[in-house]
Specification:
With 679 residues, this protein is an all-alpha fold. The protein is 48% helix and 0% strand. The chain starts with 20 loop residues before the first helix and ends in a 5-residue tail after the last helix.
């Protein structure tokens, strides 16, 4: 836009100088309305200021009385147009369409979490946790703020490095800390690698054969990553990554030496803290496998380039490296060195990226040295975008952007989503890795329950540390008050199901079995709520006479140097079973947010003309297969395989029908609430 284009003259009308696309759309619609009222004879002054879904007063038209249908249709059309104009005019011009959806989703979720918190003390705690973790709250001056932590919990940047000399302190300012010395440069044979990239334990008979059997499920949703961890001497990430990169021919495509790749992956794996309960190398391997599985969806076939696939798998491998087992909010609240270094923005995600790219510069670790400069820059940008998307406070924004993308293409009439631009493809990839990172509740029930125990153990470890430091215990992290079962039900209802429902619409029908797993896991935890004992002290394994272990032996300082040290072995005791209870249950799924239904919108996906919503498909699932009703601890690991399992020649389980399960109440935008919530 030049200076000349903005200068008005006597020959210009007000419409001539409208140059921004949004304003042009409004002007065009206004002109359409004017012409429409002239053609139909409707009064120009008629203007409805309410949703066309609501009751409308009768409107007199100039249409001949014998054609009442015409007059009614004309009036309803004008009402619809007026509503659209009202919404468009009320939009803030500097906000994107996805921002509008994000704000709407946040208001809806906030309203529903408020209702959920009224179900009892545990419901309030679950609501507070979901609100703090998954909503990116913009700081406002009138918002209440937490009191500053005690002085010994909020050391100054100088005190954070007081153990260093003055000279060293100045030299360390630009360094990425947390980098360990390499130990794998000369450990690998020069001409050959182990079959699966890692040495296998000698104390497990037939370990190679058993590992091969486990990796046969690598193209299925239910691969047992915990068993793979045992069979690889606790190197599941290197094993899974090496297998996937070989299977996808990425090593050859990008001229990556196998030895260099394995050296780098083993180094990355060593930088995951094995004493952290959840965010460790097993979680990284699981997210990498889930990312691979989602990329295999037939609906996404031939959509992404090899470089984009390489970036997605790499991002999954490194997305939580150097995670200390403490969340971002804890690091921010305690003024940790990490939070100071990254300005409180996606602290752990930024640090994982910095560590991962720094390790690429180590000797014999640069697996991507053959990439041309332009490809390297594209790769780095994609990896950064995807890893930053794993910050949970961005959940609602990612969901809103994906939902907007899917709905817009459906409403536009084509019903086909052409991912022909980088922005479109990276948006899908960010949501894909976000889904993979939140896949635990959608895994087969036996795996889901193991992951739940691990993540709650990590939460309780942070809660114990907060008690030790005499600061407020974060929601969902007090082992004496948390109701695990109710937390999982709320987590699935308000966070997990809306996300996976939207993804299922994107790649229909490839994720339907994943939704079946999700429903089964929800039913399992729902059934446990009323069966739980009253809340009370949680007994840990190994604590004599029912006493809880003292948390004073858990020590984590807030400097990077101390975070590099191995956590106290007490953390491992948190893996024990905890008996927790509920003070109330949900009479229904609790959420009023419903999903899209219809056909796939991916361009190369053949749509199903009579497709039901995925939750309507869930109503045909045999409820007797749920572990909550059958007591089963394992399921067919092909579960969730969908089209991927078929495409690889491996069958997928069929869900029996009994017609007893009612349609769930989940929603993102139901007809009832969509227009009641102002844009």
């Amino acid at each position: 836009m030049s200076r000349n284009s903005s200068i008005t003259s006597d020959s210009h009308t007000s419409e001539d100088i409208i140059v921004t696309p949004f304003a042009q759309i409004l002007a065009s619609l206004r002109n359409v309305r004017k012409n429409y009222t002239h053609l139909t004879g409707l009064p120009q002054s008629m203007h409805s200021r309410q949703s066309p879904r609501g009751p409308q007063p009768p409107i007199k038209t100039n249409v001949p009385p014998q054609d009442e249908t015409y007059g009614k249709l004309a009036s309803e059309t004008l009402e619809e147009l007026d509503w659209c104009l009202e919404q468009l005019e009320s939009m803030t011009s500097y906000r994107s369409v996805s921002d509008l959806a994000t704000s709407k989703f946040k208001r809806m979720l906030n309203r529903e979490l408020t209702a959920f918190s009224d179900t009892g003390k545990s419901g309030n705690q679950v609501s507070e946790f979901l609100f703090q973790t998954f909503l990116d709250k913009q700081q406002e001056v009138d918002l209440p703020t937490l009191p500053p932590p005690p002085r010994d919990l909020a050391p100054s940047p100088t005190n954070l490095t007081r153990s260093s000399s003055k000279g060293r302190r100045s030299n360390d300012m630009g360094k990425i800390k947390g980098i360990q010395k390499l130990r794998h440069l000369n450990n690998l044979a020069p001409d050959a690698l182990p079959r699966f990239g890692v040495a296998l334990p000698a104390d497990i008979p037939n370990a190679e054969e058993e590992l091969e059997n486990e990796l046969d499920y690598i193209d299925k949703w239910g691969m047992d990553i915990f068993r793979i961890d045992s069979l690889t001497n606790h190197r599941p990430l290197t094993c899974v990554a090496y297998t996937l990169f070989e299977e996808r021919n990425l090593l050859k495509s990008f001229n990556i030496p196998a030895k260099t790749f394995v050296t780098y992956m083993m180094t990355i794996e060593d930088h995951y803290n094995k004493d952290v309960k959840y965010h460790n190398q097993v979680h990284a391997a699981d997210v990498t496998h889930s990312t691979h599985f989602l990329l295999c969806a037939p609906a996404l076939e031939s959509v992404f380039t090899d470089l984009e696939i390489l970036a997605a798998l790499f991002a999954a491998c490194i997305h939580d490296v150097r995670h200390p087992g403490l969340n971002n909010q804890f690091l921010i609240n305690t003024n940790s060195e990490l939070a100071i270094m990254y300005n409180d923005e996606s602290v752990l995600e930024n640090h994982s990226l910095a560590v991962a790219f720094k390790l690429l510069q180590m000797e014999n670790c640069n697996m991507l040295e053959s990439l041309p400069k332009k490809q390297w820059q594209q790769f780095r940008k994609m990896v950064i975008d995807m890893v930053l998307a794993t910050d949970m406070v961005k959940h609602m924004s990612l969901l809103a952007e994906l939902k907007t993308m899917v709905e817009t293409k459906k409403v536009a009439g084509s019903g086909v989503l052409l991912l022909d631009t980088y922005n479109d493809r990276i948006q899908v990839l960010k949501n894909l890795i976000h889904c993979a990172d939140l896949a635990n509740p959608a895994k087969p029930p036996d795996l889901c329950q193991q992951w739940t125990n691990r993540v709650m153990g990590e939460f309780f470890s942070q809660g114990d540390l907060e008690k030790e430091k005499k600061i407020d215990v974060s929601p969902m992290m007090d082992r004496n008050t948390v109701v695990v079962e109710k937390s999982q039900v709320g987590f699935i209802d308000y966070i997990i199901h809306p996300l996976w429902e939207t993804w299922a619409d994107l790649v229909f029908p490839d994720a339907q079995d994943i939704l079946v797993n999700l429903e089964q896991n929800r039913e399992f935890y729902q059934s446990k709520i009323r069966d739980s004992p009253p809340p009370g002290k949680v007994e840990e394994e190994g604590a004599p006479n029912g006493e809880t272990k003292d948390s004073k032996d858990l020590h984590i300082d807030l400097t990077l140097e101390d975070l590099e040290e191995t956590r106290d072995k007490r953390c491992s005791s948190l893996e024990g079973k905890t008996e927790l209870s509920a003070d109330g249950g949900l009479s229904s799924h609790g959420s009023s947010m419903s999903s899209l239904s219809g056909q796939s919108v991916i361009a190369n996906q053949s749509p199903s003309p009579n497709r039901l919503s995925s939750l309507e498909n869930l109503s045909n699932t045999n409820s007797s297969q749920s572990p909550a009703k059958s007591g089963a601890s394992t399921t067919d690991r092909g579960g969730g395989g969908g089209g991927v399992a078929n495409s690889t020649g491996k069958g997928r389980p069929k869900a029996a029908a009994d017609g007893k399960t009612g349609k769930s109440q989940y929603s993102i935008l139901s007809d009832k609430t969509a227009r009641e919530t102002d844009l």
